[in-house]
Amino acid sequence: MKKNLFCILVAALMLWGLPAHAGGTWPEKSIQVIVPWAPGGGSDLSARIVMDKVANILGQPVVITNISGAAGLNGALRVNRAAPDGYTVLWEHPANLAIAPVIGRAKYTWKDFEMACSIGTSDIAVFVKKDAKWNSMKEVIDDIKAHPGQIKWSLAVNSASHFTFLAISESMGGLKIMQIPGAGDKTRIINVMGGVCDITTAGYAAVAPYVESGDVKILAMASPQRSVLAPQYPTLMEQGINAESVFLYSAEFPKGTPQAIIAKFQAAVEKALQDPEVIELLKKQGIVAQYKDSAATTAVWEKESALYLRLAKANRMIR
By its UniProt entry, which SUPFAM superfamilies does this protein fall under (predicted)? Predict the structure, then answer.
């Protein structure tokens, strides 16, 4: 009798410790999606576009909260410490949580979250001022090698723009440039237009308006294949440079979030990405909508992490 009573008490305590939504009623209140960057960028806009439709599908509000600072780590830490109850989500891309742990800027990695899915990719463009003398990456590389330390390349240290350059440099046997600080796409675009630097990289969506206005010209895309949105531009690979980089917008939950909740969230996101309006809105932001489940998304993050680790080691960046 005592043994049976003990078992009943243990079972009751276990059930009491489970969140109410574990029974399948999630979500019962609003969901907070944390974007670890300032409003207006690709991460922020993609989250708002997709989550607006997801909110309709799930029948609960989805609140987008921007928590920037520390190169995206402030927002990521907030989610990392949140309760694993399905009401806090991180909207992220590999350039943050795949780089920071490698160079010692974070004690946690993307593996300390539950990877849910990804919603699409945004191409990265390599570009120069419209009247620049170069019309191909080969011409730029040849000039950098002929004049080491003189060509000005704008980048944000320890970011995607930095590691994209490192990959290009490695492929070309090492490139010595004059490094110009440029935190954020808009800053680097202004740097090019104002003559502060000669060349840089930024998300295609951010660069496109300045191509149309005649201020800059794109020499290459860093994507593995030609861009669906701008197929007229050759890739780095096509120009003999073994380097690639894209933004993969992904959703992650705190570690320990029930898989039943994640599965329901995944289904809602996948359904949202089938909506023509969502697809078109993402396209206008330079994002190609493509749903990937947790396994497929994890595979991309694994690949990116391995690349960042190799480049960090080669350039003695690991603390």
Answer: Periplasmic binding protein-like II
- For residue 48, the tally of other CB atoms under 10 A from its CB is 17
The residue whose two tokens read 């480049």 is 311
> Same topology for domains 31-122+246-315 and 124-222, yes or no?
yes
Residue 24 contacts residue 258 (beta carbons within 8 Å): no
Q: Of 150, 225, 315, which is closest to residue 140 (Cα–Cα)?
A: 150
Rounded Cα–Cα distance for residues 13 and 33 (Å): 30
CATH number of the 124-222 domain: 3.40.190.10
DSSP secondary structure letter of residue 233: S
The answer as to CATH 2.40.30.100 being correct for domain 31-122+246-315 is no
Euclidean distance between CA atoms 62 and 56, whole angstroms:
9
SS (H, E, C) 130-162: CCCCCCCHHHHHHHHHHCCCCCEEEECCCCHHH
- Residues 153-193 have pLDDT tens digits of 999 888 889 999 999 999 999 999 999 999 888 899 999 99
Rounded distance between C-alpha atoms, residue 92 and residue 82, angstroms: 16
Q: What token pair was written down for 69?
A: 């600072």
d(CA 243, CA 231): 18
**Closest alpha carbon to 198 in 268, 276, 130:** 130
* % of the chain with per-residue pLDDT over 90: 76
User: One-letter amino acid identity for 1?
Assistant: M
CA 47 to chain CA mean position, Å:
11
C-alpha span between 269 and 292 (Å, rounded):
10
Spell out the domain ranges in the chain.
31-122+246-315, 124-222
Residue written as token pair 């380097």 = 243
Residue 42 has which token pair?
A: 């690709």
